[in-house]
TrEMBL record:
It holds the Pfam family Aldedh. It catalyses: D-glyceraldehyde 3-phosphate + NADP(+) + H2O = (2R)-3-phosphoglycerate + NADPH + 2 H(+). The active site is at residue 264. PROSITE patterns: ALDEHYDE_DEHYDR_CYS, ALDEHYDE_DEHYDR_GLU. Belongs to the aldehyde dehydrogenase family. It is an enzyme of class 1 (oxidoreductase). It comes from Camelina sativa. InterPro entries: Ald_DH/histidinol_DH, Ald_DH_C, Ald_DH_CS_CYS, Ald_DH_CS_GLU, Ald_DH_N, Aldehyde_DH_dom, ALDH-related_metabolic_enz. Residues 24-483 form the Aldehyde dehydrogenase domain. This is NADP-dependent glyceraldehyde-3-phosphate dehydrogenase.
Length: 496
Protein backbone atom coordinates (compact mmCIF):
# COMPACT_ATOMS: atom_id res chain seq x y z
CA UNK A 1 0.00 0.00 0.00
CA UNK A 2 1.01 3.62 -0.54
CA UNK A 3 2.82 5.22 2.37
CA UNK A 4 3.66 1.92 4.09
CA UNK A 5 6.61 -0.44 4.35
CA UNK A 6 9.61 0.99 2.52
CA UNK A 7 7.67 4.24 2.07
CA UNK A 8 6.44 4.66 5.66
CA UNK A 9 8.74 7.58 6.40
CA UNK A 10 7.18 9.79 3.72
CA UNK A 11 3.85 9.86 5.58
CA UNK A 12 3.10 11.80 8.78
CA UNK A 13 -0.27 10.63 10.07
CA UNK A 14 -2.64 11.47 7.22
CA UNK A 15 -0.38 13.98 5.46
CA UNK A 16 2.48 13.14 3.11
CA UNK A 17 5.73 15.00 3.81
CA UNK A 18 7.81 17.04 1.40
CA UNK A 19 11.46 16.24 0.60
CA UNK A 20 14.41 18.54 1.24
CA UNK A 21 18.05 18.16 2.35
CA UNK A 22 17.84 14.39 2.12
CA UNK A 23 14.98 14.24 4.65
CA UNK A 24 11.20 13.96 4.71
CA UNK A 25 9.75 17.02 6.43
CA UNK A 26 6.51 18.61 7.55
CA UNK A 27 5.83 22.20 6.56
CA UNK A 28 6.04 25.00 9.08
CA UNK A 29 2.75 26.27 7.63
CA UNK A 30 0.86 23.58 9.51
CA UNK A 31 -1.42 23.39 6.47
CA UNK A 32 -2.08 20.70 3.91
CA UNK A 33 -3.58 20.38 0.43
CA UNK A 34 -6.25 17.75 -0.19
CA UNK A 35 -6.15 15.49 -3.24
CA UNK A 36 -9.57 14.46 -4.48
CA UNK A 37 -10.06 11.00 -5.94
CA UNK A 38 -11.60 11.72 -9.38
CA UNK A 39 -13.68 8.54 -9.36
CA UNK A 40 -15.20 8.89 -5.88
CA UNK A 41 -14.97 12.71 -5.71
CA UNK A 42 -13.89 12.32 -2.08
CA UNK A 43 -10.60 13.36 -0.43
CA UNK A 44 -8.02 10.59 -0.93
CA UNK A 45 -4.68 12.03 0.19
CA UNK A 46 -3.16 15.13 1.76
CA UNK A 47 0.21 16.74 1.07
CA UNK A 48 2.16 19.54 2.74
CA UNK A 49 1.35 23.15 1.86
CA UNK A 50 4.93 24.44 1.71
CA UNK A 51 5.80 28.09 2.25
CA UNK A 52 7.90 30.55 0.30
CA UNK A 53 10.49 30.41 3.09
CA UNK A 54 10.76 26.66 2.57
CA UNK A 55 11.19 27.24 -1.15
CA UNK A 56 14.05 29.64 -0.39
CA UNK A 57 15.70 27.07 1.86
CA UNK A 58 15.40 24.36 -0.79
CA UNK A 59 16.92 26.62 -3.45
CA UNK A 60 19.94 27.41 -1.27
CA UNK A 61 20.47 23.70 -0.63
CA UNK A 62 20.12 22.96 -4.34
CA UNK A 63 22.72 25.58 -5.28
CA UNK A 64 25.21 24.23 -2.77
CA UNK A 65 24.65 20.55 -3.56
CA UNK A 66 24.99 21.15 -7.28
CA UNK A 67 28.56 22.41 -6.93
CA UNK A 68 29.68 19.11 -5.43
CA UNK A 69 27.54 17.02 -7.77
CA UNK A 70 29.13 18.65 -10.82
CA UNK A 71 32.47 17.23 -9.60
CA UNK A 72 31.05 13.73 -9.28
CA UNK A 73 32.37 11.44 -12.06
CA UNK A 74 29.92 10.67 -14.85
CA UNK A 75 30.06 6.93 -14.19
CA UNK A 76 29.10 7.53 -10.56
CA UNK A 77 26.13 9.71 -11.53
CA UNK A 78 25.01 7.00 -13.95
CA UNK A 79 25.47 4.29 -11.31
CA UNK A 80 23.15 6.10 -8.90
CA UNK A 81 20.55 6.63 -11.61
CA UNK A 82 20.59 2.92 -12.48
CA UNK A 83 20.14 2.16 -8.79
CA UNK A 84 17.15 4.53 -8.53
CA UNK A 85 15.61 2.93 -11.63
CA UNK A 86 15.91 -0.54 -10.14
CA UNK A 87 14.34 0.55 -6.84
CA UNK A 88 11.50 2.26 -8.74
CA UNK A 89 10.68 -0.86 -10.77
CA UNK A 90 10.99 -3.16 -7.76
CA UNK A 91 8.48 -1.00 -5.85
CA UNK A 92 6.00 -0.18 -8.59
CA UNK A 93 2.89 -1.26 -6.67
CA UNK A 94 2.55 1.73 -4.27
CA UNK A 95 3.11 4.22 -7.09
CA UNK A 96 0.65 2.45 -9.36
CA UNK A 97 -1.90 2.42 -6.53
CA UNK A 98 -1.43 6.16 -6.06
CA UNK A 99 -1.92 6.82 -9.76
CA UNK A 100 -5.18 4.88 -9.71
CA UNK A 101 -6.52 6.80 -6.73
CA UNK A 102 -5.34 10.35 -7.45
CA UNK A 103 -5.68 10.58 -11.24
CA UNK A 104 -8.04 7.64 -11.98
CA UNK A 105 -5.57 6.01 -14.35
CA UNK A 106 -6.50 2.38 -15.11
CA UNK A 107 -4.53 -0.04 -12.93
CA UNK A 108 -2.64 -1.78 -15.74
CA UNK A 109 -1.68 1.55 -17.33
CA UNK A 110 -0.49 2.82 -13.95
CA UNK A 111 1.92 -0.11 -13.61
CA UNK A 112 3.10 0.46 -17.18
CA UNK A 113 3.84 4.12 -16.43
CA UNK A 114 6.07 3.25 -13.46
CA UNK A 115 7.99 0.52 -15.31
CA UNK A 116 8.41 2.79 -18.34
CA UNK A 117 9.78 5.47 -16.02
CA UNK A 118 12.42 3.13 -14.63
CA UNK A 119 13.48 2.23 -18.15
CA UNK A 120 13.69 5.91 -19.02
CA UNK A 121 15.99 6.64 -16.07
CA UNK A 122 18.36 3.82 -17.07
CA UNK A 123 18.38 4.81 -20.73
CA UNK A 124 19.12 8.40 -19.75
CA UNK A 125 22.03 7.31 -17.57
CA UNK A 126 23.58 5.38 -20.44
CA UNK A 127 22.95 8.07 -23.04
CA UNK A 128 24.27 10.77 -20.71
CA UNK A 129 27.59 8.99 -20.29
CA UNK A 130 27.95 8.85 -24.07
CA UNK A 131 26.87 12.43 -24.77
CA UNK A 132 28.69 14.10 -21.90
CA UNK A 133 31.78 11.89 -22.16
CA UNK A 134 32.65 13.38 -25.53
CA UNK A 135 33.88 16.87 -26.30
CA UNK A 136 35.00 18.62 -29.46
CA UNK A 137 38.46 19.56 -30.68
CA UNK A 138 38.64 22.39 -33.21
CA UNK A 139 41.66 23.79 -35.07
CA UNK A 140 41.97 27.45 -35.98
CA UNK A 141 43.30 26.93 -39.51
CA UNK A 142 39.98 25.51 -40.69
CA UNK A 143 38.69 29.11 -40.85
CA UNK A 144 40.08 31.33 -43.66
CA UNK A 145 42.97 33.61 -42.73
CA UNK A 146 44.15 31.58 -39.73
CA UNK A 147 47.23 29.47 -39.10
CA UNK A 148 47.10 26.50 -36.75
CA UNK A 149 47.94 28.48 -33.63
CA UNK A 150 44.80 27.77 -31.59
CA UNK A 151 43.44 24.52 -30.22
CA UNK A 152 39.80 24.79 -29.13
CA UNK A 153 38.43 22.28 -26.60
CA UNK A 154 34.66 22.24 -25.98
CA UNK A 155 32.63 20.32 -23.43
CA UNK A 156 29.15 20.39 -21.93
CA UNK A 157 28.74 21.69 -18.40
CA UNK A 158 25.66 21.80 -16.13
CA UNK A 159 23.37 24.84 -15.89
CA UNK A 160 22.87 24.73 -12.10
CA UNK A 161 19.40 24.34 -10.57
CA UNK A 162 16.67 22.83 -12.76
CA UNK A 163 13.02 23.33 -11.79
CA UNK A 164 10.82 20.46 -12.99
CA UNK A 165 7.02 20.79 -13.17
CA UNK A 166 5.24 17.71 -14.56
CA UNK A 167 1.48 17.44 -15.34
CA UNK A 168 -1.21 15.32 -13.70
CA UNK A 169 -1.70 12.84 -16.54
CA UNK A 170 1.79 11.26 -16.42
CA UNK A 171 3.15 12.57 -13.13
CA UNK A 172 5.80 9.88 -12.63
CA UNK A 173 6.95 9.43 -16.21
CA UNK A 174 7.06 13.13 -17.08
CA UNK A 175 8.80 13.87 -13.79
CA UNK A 176 11.63 11.41 -14.42
CA UNK A 177 11.89 12.64 -18.02
CA UNK A 178 13.07 15.90 -16.45
CA UNK A 179 14.87 14.58 -13.36
CA UNK A 180 17.13 12.00 -15.02
CA UNK A 181 18.58 14.31 -17.73
CA UNK A 182 19.11 17.07 -15.16
CA UNK A 183 21.00 14.80 -12.78
CA UNK A 184 23.19 12.98 -15.30
CA UNK A 185 24.18 16.40 -16.68
CA UNK A 186 25.40 17.53 -13.23
CA UNK A 187 22.49 19.75 -12.22
CA UNK A 188 20.50 19.78 -9.01
CA UNK A 189 16.75 19.31 -9.25
CA UNK A 190 13.74 20.91 -7.58
CA UNK A 191 10.46 19.12 -8.33
CA UNK A 192 7.06 20.77 -8.01
CA UNK A 193 4.58 17.96 -8.67
CA UNK A 194 0.98 18.57 -9.74
CA UNK A 195 -1.54 18.37 -6.89
CA UNK A 196 -3.29 15.44 -8.62
CA UNK A 197 -0.30 13.12 -8.93
CA UNK A 198 1.72 14.51 -6.03
CA UNK A 199 1.63 11.34 -3.93
CA UNK A 200 2.88 9.13 -6.75
CA UNK A 201 5.67 11.68 -7.32
CA UNK A 202 6.62 11.62 -3.64
CA UNK A 203 6.93 7.83 -3.76
CA UNK A 204 9.09 8.16 -6.89
CA UNK A 205 11.36 10.73 -5.19
CA UNK A 206 11.81 8.32 -2.27
CA UNK A 207 13.31 5.83 -4.73
CA UNK A 208 16.00 8.42 -5.56
CA UNK A 209 16.49 8.98 -1.81
CA UNK A 210 16.97 5.25 -1.23
CA UNK A 211 19.46 5.12 -4.10
CA UNK A 212 21.78 7.37 -2.09
CA UNK A 213 21.87 10.67 -3.97
CA UNK A 214 23.61 13.48 -2.01
CA UNK A 215 21.59 15.60 0.39
CA UNK A 216 20.05 18.73 -1.11
CA UNK A 217 20.57 17.56 -4.69
CA UNK A 218 16.93 16.55 -5.17
CA UNK A 219 14.01 18.33 -3.53
CA UNK A 220 10.26 17.90 -3.87
CA UNK A 221 8.08 20.85 -2.86
CA UNK A 222 4.31 20.40 -2.61
CA UNK A 223 1.70 23.09 -2.13
CA UNK A 224 -0.75 25.42 -3.78
CA UNK A 225 0.31 26.89 -7.08
CA UNK A 226 -1.39 30.15 -6.09
CA UNK A 227 0.98 30.48 -3.11
CA UNK A 228 4.31 29.13 -4.37
CA UNK A 229 3.89 28.74 -8.15
CA UNK A 230 5.16 32.13 -9.32
CA UNK A 231 7.63 32.23 -6.44
CA UNK A 232 9.22 29.02 -7.74
CA UNK A 233 9.26 29.87 -11.44
CA UNK A 234 10.61 33.39 -10.88
CA UNK A 235 13.13 32.39 -8.21
CA UNK A 236 16.61 33.82 -8.96
CA UNK A 237 18.29 30.52 -8.07
CA UNK A 238 16.54 28.66 -10.91
CA UNK A 239 18.73 28.20 -14.00
CA UNK A 240 16.34 26.17 -16.16
CA UNK A 241 12.62 25.30 -16.15
CA UNK A 242 11.16 22.14 -17.65
CA UNK A 243 7.36 22.36 -17.62
CA UNK A 244 4.63 20.17 -19.04
CA UNK A 245 1.03 21.31 -18.75
CA UNK A 246 -1.44 23.81 -20.12
CA UNK A 247 -1.39 27.50 -20.92
CA UNK A 248 0.12 28.24 -17.49
CA UNK A 249 3.36 27.59 -19.32
CA UNK A 250 2.84 30.69 -21.48
CA UNK A 251 2.64 32.78 -18.33
CA UNK A 252 5.76 31.10 -16.94
CA UNK A 253 7.70 31.76 -20.13
CA UNK A 254 6.89 35.46 -19.97
CA UNK A 255 8.08 35.76 -16.37
CA UNK A 256 11.03 33.39 -16.24
CA UNK A 257 13.78 35.69 -17.52
CA UNK A 258 16.94 34.71 -19.37
CA UNK A 259 17.07 31.00 -18.63
CA UNK A 260 16.56 27.96 -20.88
CA UNK A 261 12.96 26.77 -21.04
CA UNK A 262 11.54 23.40 -22.01
CA UNK A 263 7.78 23.76 -22.42
CA UNK A 264 5.12 21.34 -23.66
CA UNK A 265 1.73 23.01 -23.45
CA UNK A 266 -0.83 20.77 -25.10
CA UNK A 267 -2.19 20.32 -28.58
CA UNK A 268 -5.15 19.92 -30.89
CA UNK A 269 -3.74 16.93 -32.73
CA UNK A 270 -5.35 16.47 -36.12
CA UNK A 271 -5.89 13.12 -37.84
CA UNK A 272 -6.09 13.57 -41.62
CA UNK A 273 -7.67 10.60 -43.41
CA UNK A 274 -7.27 10.25 -47.19
CA UNK A 275 -9.55 8.29 -49.52
CA UNK A 276 -7.08 5.41 -49.95
CA UNK A 277 -6.52 4.90 -46.21
CA UNK A 278 -6.97 1.53 -44.52
CA UNK A 279 -10.14 2.46 -42.64
CA UNK A 280 -9.92 -0.44 -40.18
CA UNK A 281 -6.43 0.77 -39.22
CA UNK A 282 -7.72 4.35 -38.96
CA UNK A 283 -10.64 3.33 -36.75
CA UNK A 284 -8.38 1.36 -34.39
CA UNK A 285 -6.02 4.31 -34.10
CA UNK A 286 -8.83 6.79 -33.47
CA UNK A 287 -9.96 4.59 -30.58
CA UNK A 288 -6.42 4.21 -29.24
CA UNK A 289 -5.46 7.81 -29.92
CA UNK A 290 -8.71 9.50 -28.94
CA UNK A 291 -9.95 7.50 -25.97
CA UNK A 292 -6.89 6.06 -24.17
CA UNK A 293 -6.84 7.37 -20.60
CA UNK A 294 -10.18 9.02 -21.38
CA UNK A 295 -8.55 11.35 -23.89
CA UNK A 296 -6.48 13.07 -21.20
CA UNK A 297 -3.28 13.09 -23.21
CA UNK A 298 -1.51 15.95 -24.95
CA UNK A 299 -1.03 13.65 -27.94
CA UNK A 300 -4.62 12.39 -28.09
CA UNK A 301 -6.44 12.50 -31.44
CA UNK A 302 -8.44 15.68 -30.91
CA UNK A 303 -9.96 16.22 -34.34
CA UNK A 304 -10.51 13.85 -37.27
CA UNK A 305 -10.36 15.46 -40.73
CA UNK A 306 -11.69 12.83 -43.12
CA UNK A 307 -12.37 12.98 -46.86
CA UNK A 308 -16.12 13.13 -47.46
CA UNK A 309 -16.15 10.08 -49.75
CA UNK A 310 -15.01 7.71 -46.96
CA UNK A 311 -16.43 9.56 -43.95
CA UNK A 312 -19.63 7.51 -43.58
CA UNK A 313 -17.75 4.22 -43.63
CA UNK A 314 -15.11 5.43 -41.18
CA UNK A 315 -17.67 6.83 -38.74
CA UNK A 316 -19.54 3.51 -38.70
CA UNK A 317 -16.34 1.58 -37.99
CA UNK A 318 -15.40 3.93 -35.14
CA UNK A 319 -18.94 3.79 -33.70
CA UNK A 320 -18.76 0.00 -33.56
CA UNK A 321 -15.49 0.15 -31.65
CA UNK A 322 -16.70 2.87 -29.26
CA UNK A 323 -19.61 0.60 -28.33
CA UNK A 324 -17.11 -1.98 -27.07
CA UNK A 325 -15.25 0.40 -24.74
CA UNK A 326 -15.78 -0.34 -21.06
CA UNK A 327 -16.68 2.50 -18.70
CA UNK A 328 -16.12 2.41 -14.95
CA UNK A 329 -13.61 2.58 -12.09
CA UNK A 330 -9.85 2.54 -12.78
CA UNK A 331 -9.38 -0.39 -10.39
CA UNK A 332 -11.31 -2.54 -12.90
CA UNK A 333 -9.03 -1.50 -15.78
CA UNK A 334 -11.96 0.19 -17.50
CA UNK A 335 -11.15 1.75 -20.87
CA UNK A 336 -12.90 4.98 -19.87
CA UNK A 337 -12.50 6.29 -16.32
CA UNK A 338 -13.37 9.55 -14.57
CA UNK A 339 -11.66 12.68 -15.82
CA UNK A 340 -9.36 14.34 -13.33
CA UNK A 341 -11.70 16.93 -11.79
CA UNK A 342 -15.20 18.34 -11.78
CA UNK A 343 -14.00 21.54 -13.45
CA UNK A 344 -12.47 19.45 -16.24
CA UNK A 345 -15.74 17.52 -16.68
CA UNK A 346 -17.69 20.80 -16.77
CA UNK A 347 -15.37 22.19 -19.45
CA UNK A 348 -15.79 19.08 -21.60
CA UNK A 349 -19.55 19.25 -21.18
CA UNK A 350 -19.50 22.90 -22.28
CA UNK A 351 -17.79 21.91 -25.54
CA UNK A 352 -20.30 19.10 -26.08
CA UNK A 353 -23.32 21.35 -25.45
CA UNK A 354 -21.95 23.98 -27.83
CA UNK A 355 -21.61 21.33 -30.54
CA UNK A 356 -25.15 20.11 -29.85
CA UNK A 357 -26.62 23.61 -30.14
CA UNK A 358 -24.84 24.13 -33.45
CA UNK A 359 -26.02 20.90 -35.02
CA UNK A 360 -23.29 18.28 -34.62
CA UNK A 361 -24.38 14.66 -35.04
CA UNK A 362 -24.12 12.64 -31.80
CA UNK A 363 -23.05 9.09 -32.61
CA UNK A 364 -23.81 8.10 -29.01
CA UNK A 365 -26.03 9.55 -26.35
CA UNK A 366 -24.16 12.04 -24.20
CA UNK A 367 -23.91 10.63 -20.70
CA UNK A 368 -22.18 11.88 -17.57
CA UNK A 369 -22.15 10.79 -13.94
CA UNK A 370 -20.01 13.05 -11.75
CA UNK A 371 -16.54 13.15 -13.34
CA UNK A 372 -17.25 10.10 -15.48
CA UNK A 373 -18.08 10.94 -19.09
CA UNK A 374 -18.99 8.16 -21.52
CA UNK A 375 -17.03 8.06 -24.81
CA UNK A 376 -18.55 10.26 -27.48
CA UNK A 377 -17.96 10.57 -31.22
CA UNK A 378 -19.29 13.77 -32.77
CA UNK A 379 -19.86 13.72 -36.54
CA UNK A 380 -20.54 16.62 -38.92
CA UNK A 381 -18.64 19.05 -36.72
CA UNK A 382 -18.14 22.44 -38.35
CA UNK A 383 -15.39 25.05 -37.88
CA UNK A 384 -17.81 27.37 -36.02
CA UNK A 385 -18.01 24.89 -33.13
CA UNK A 386 -15.66 25.24 -30.15
CA UNK A 387 -14.84 21.51 -30.21
CA UNK A 388 -13.25 22.00 -33.65
CA UNK A 389 -10.52 24.16 -32.10
CA UNK A 390 -10.37 23.73 -28.33
CA UNK A 391 -8.63 20.88 -26.53
CA UNK A 392 -11.26 18.88 -24.60
CA UNK A 393 -8.84 16.67 -22.65
CA UNK A 394 -11.62 14.15 -22.35
CA UNK A 395 -13.25 11.19 -24.16
CA UNK A 396 -14.83 13.23 -26.96
CA UNK A 397 -13.61 13.04 -30.57
CA UNK A 398 -14.99 15.43 -33.23
CA UNK A 399 -15.14 14.50 -36.93
CA UNK A 400 -14.93 17.19 -39.62
CA UNK A 401 -15.63 16.12 -43.19
CA UNK A 402 -13.32 17.68 -45.78
CA UNK A 403 -13.50 17.92 -49.55
CA UNK A 404 -9.74 18.17 -50.17
CA UNK A 405 -6.41 17.43 -48.54
CA UNK A 406 -5.67 21.16 -48.60
CA UNK A 407 -8.76 21.82 -46.51
CA UNK A 408 -7.49 19.37 -43.89
CA UNK A 409 -4.01 20.87 -43.83
CA UNK A 410 -5.43 24.40 -43.59
CA UNK A 411 -7.62 23.44 -40.62
CA UNK A 412 -4.66 21.83 -38.87
CA UNK A 413 -2.43 24.85 -39.48
CA UNK A 414 -5.08 27.39 -38.46
CA UNK A 415 -4.90 26.09 -34.88
CA UNK A 416 -2.88 28.00 -32.31
CA UNK A 417 -1.50 24.59 -31.30
CA UNK A 418 1.12 22.58 -33.17
CA UNK A 419 2.12 19.56 -31.09
CA UNK A 420 1.49 16.48 -33.23
CA UNK A 421 -0.68 15.31 -36.06
CA UNK A 422 -1.16 12.18 -38.13
CA UNK A 423 -2.03 11.24 -41.69
CA UNK A 424 -3.48 7.97 -42.98
CA UNK A 425 -2.82 6.98 -46.60
CA UNK A 426 -1.24 4.13 -48.56
CA UNK A 427 0.65 6.65 -50.73
CA UNK A 428 3.95 7.40 -48.99
CA UNK A 429 4.68 10.28 -51.36
CA UNK A 430 1.44 12.02 -50.39
CA UNK A 431 2.13 11.27 -46.74
CA UNK A 432 5.52 12.97 -46.85
CA UNK A 433 4.15 16.03 -48.67
CA UNK A 434 1.31 16.37 -46.14
CA UNK A 435 3.70 15.84 -43.24
CA UNK A 436 5.94 18.61 -44.52
CA UNK A 437 2.93 20.94 -44.86
CA UNK A 438 1.55 20.33 -41.36
CA UNK A 439 2.74 22.91 -38.82
CA UNK A 440 3.31 20.49 -35.96
CA UNK A 441 6.35 19.28 -34.03
CA UNK A 442 5.74 15.65 -35.06
CA UNK A 443 3.64 13.95 -37.73
CA UNK A 444 2.82 10.25 -37.43
CA UNK A 445 2.18 8.38 -40.67
CA UNK A 446 -0.44 5.63 -40.41
CA UNK A 447 -0.52 5.73 -36.61
CA UNK A 448 -2.09 7.88 -33.92
CA UNK A 449 -0.05 10.67 -32.29
CA UNK A 450 2.14 9.47 -29.43
CA UNK A 451 4.88 10.71 -27.13
CA UNK A 452 7.51 8.07 -27.32
CA UNK A 453 9.41 5.91 -27.23
CA UNK A 454 10.90 8.24 -24.65
CA UNK A 455 14.19 8.73 -26.50
CA UNK A 456 12.42 10.15 -29.58
CA UNK A 457 12.42 13.94 -29.95
CA UNK A 458 9.16 15.45 -28.72
CA UNK A 459 8.35 19.10 -29.34
CA UNK A 460 5.58 21.50 -30.27
CA UNK A 461 5.27 24.53 -32.49
CA UNK A 462 3.32 27.73 -31.81
CA UNK A 463 1.44 27.63 -28.47
CA UNK A 464 2.30 23.96 -27.99
CA UNK A 465 5.71 24.70 -26.57
CA UNK A 466 9.33 25.78 -26.54
CA UNK A 467 12.34 23.52 -26.98
CA UNK A 468 12.42 19.78 -27.51
CA UNK A 469 12.18 16.78 -25.21
CA UNK A 470 13.46 13.23 -25.58
CA UNK A 471 16.51 11.95 -23.72
CA UNK A 472 19.25 13.45 -25.90
CA UNK A 473 17.52 16.80 -26.42
CA UNK A 474 16.77 17.14 -22.70
CA UNK A 475 20.38 16.47 -21.72
CA UNK A 476 21.59 19.02 -24.27
CA UNK A 477 19.05 21.61 -23.11
CA UNK A 478 20.14 21.18 -19.48
CA UNK A 479 23.79 21.86 -20.29
CA UNK A 480 25.76 24.67 -21.86
CA UNK A 481 28.94 24.65 -23.91
CA UNK A 482 32.23 25.53 -22.22
CA UNK A 483 35.21 26.38 -24.43
CA UNK A 484 38.91 26.38 -23.58
CA UNK A 485 41.36 27.71 -26.19
CA UNK A 486 45.05 26.83 -26.13
CA UNK A 487 47.12 29.50 -27.88
CA UNK A 488 50.43 28.41 -29.43
CA UNK A 489 53.39 30.77 -30.03
CA UNK A 490 53.94 29.38 -33.54
CA UNK A 491 51.81 27.42 -35.99
CA UNK A 492 51.86 23.66 -35.36
CA UNK A 493 50.95 20.96 -37.87
CA UNK A 494 50.78 17.25 -37.18
CA UNK A 495 53.96 15.61 -38.52
CA UNK A 496 54.61 18.78 -40.52
Amino acid sequence: MAGTGLFAEILDGEVYKYYADGEWKTSSSGKSVSIINPATRKPQYKVQACTQEEVNAVMELAKSAQKSWAKTPLWKRAELLHKAAAILKDNKAPMAESLVKEIAKPAKDSVTEVVRSGDLISYCAEEGVRILGEGKFLLSDSFPGNDRTKYCLTSKIPLGVVLAIPPFNYPVNLAVSKIAPALIAGNSLVLKPPTQGAVSCLHMVHCFHLAGFPKGLISCITGKGSEIGDFLTMHPAVNCISFTGGDTGISISKKAGMIPLQMELGGKDACIVLEDADLDLVASNIIKGGFSYSGQRCTAVKVVLVMESVADELVEKVKAKVAKLTVGPPEDNSDITAVVSESSANFIEGLVMDAKEKGATFCQEYRREGNLIWPLLLDNVRPDMRIAWEEPFGPVVPVLRISSVEEGINHCNASNFGLQGCVFTKDINKAILISDAMETGTVQINSAPARGPDHFPFQGLKDSGIGSQGVTNSINLMTKVKTTVINLPTPSYSMG
